[in-house]
User: What shape does this take?
Amino acid sequence: MALLSLTDVSLAFHRGRRHVVKVLANVSLSIGAGEVVAVLAQRAQGKTSLLRVAAGMQRPDSGRVCFEGEDLWGFSDRRRSRLLGGRIGWVGHTAPELDLPMLAGVALPLFAAYGKRESYTRAMAALERVGAAECAEQFWGSLADWERALVALAQGIAREPKLLLVDDVTASLGLGETDALTRLLDALASERGFGVLMSVSDAGATGWSGRVATLAGGELLEAPRSPAGQGNIIDFPGAGPRARDPRHGISS
Amino acid sequence: MGRASAQTFALSAGEAVLGLLIEQPGNCYQLERRLEGRFGSAQFAHGTAYHAVRRLSKDGLIRAVDQAGGPALLARAEMGSLPATAYEATAQGIAHFEHWLRSSTSMPPVREELLAKVAFCRPADLPRMIEIVRDAELACTARLKEVNERMRTERRLGGDDAWRRLMGLIVTASDVAWWDARIKWLQQLRTYLQREGQGYEAARGPGTLPPA
Assistant: This one.
């Protein structure tokens, strides 16, 4: 059973009477435990909306969103809201609402579930696991982009989610940092067995994702999955190796 | 090899093989594998290293090591146990490679088949054209996955040469950036075609796109 499955999900935003912005058009996607799926899209192409739909934060106009086989929109608001931040983790790039030291910031959302003491222990363990222990006493404003991304990741994994939704956290990172963060995500997904749906605006952030899809004009396109152990090579029918590569352009 | 032509922007297998032999002598089979590992995205055809070796030998840029009396470098083919000739660069080959390495590269001409198709696209062709762009986008995403997979394999295997590893990472990042740009260009092209198709129909009434 898929951890998360989206079936024929559509979403549009109405702007005035006549203008409709199509964000998702019959999008279908499923993610299993331990899988890392990167969705590559440019700005304003619905990356965050896709993640919000997957998290149960945004109701699609049509289609089904199931988590562990259950339709998210069959849940009560309370149950759906408990799911987010519990079995579904969210990693974003926005500043926290409260200006607290990072350890307290990561621990605070855990209080209701684990109590104060256990929450601090879990928060510290998460910060240590992502390599951001030294940020524990720092405030958001004093952190570099790279440290902010690590703290956001620690926040996302602190409750040991089954599914982690990662919203373009690499957008402000450099080449090496993006590589390190996505490699860490891949390692965490393997180690803890959670699925990852990650939106990215740069293909450089897809390096450690087992699956890559693109999103534009509401359409989600995913490259065919490779058979196990056979690499990712795809054949283009009726073309020789040179002709297959678009860099070779028109034959002279 | 190295002569001025419309194709000089493209990486020549000759220079790539010569560079690999300067780094480390080897036989054709090993060269074929190293070529794939280092320049996988170039998609050299099978047998490229054999042809390049023949040409480089003929031009005096490389020589067979066993002919030069270097038994320690006589490699054995990894498939089967037939002895295979190992090659190394000659002084002339090294000089040729150094000259190539330091010369400026030329700008590739934009000879994009898809753009030509769009240029000739008639209203009736629009739905098919959108499909073609979508297929190209999928194919590029598959190629991006392939580059990523190769990068992961190389990184997991590791190596002890830190400089070569760093250069490898930069080459992979550039390769990925190329596919990134290509995917984004195709996404934009598809969006333009879809939007303009809708605009065409809106201006002339629904169902006005003539049948293909």
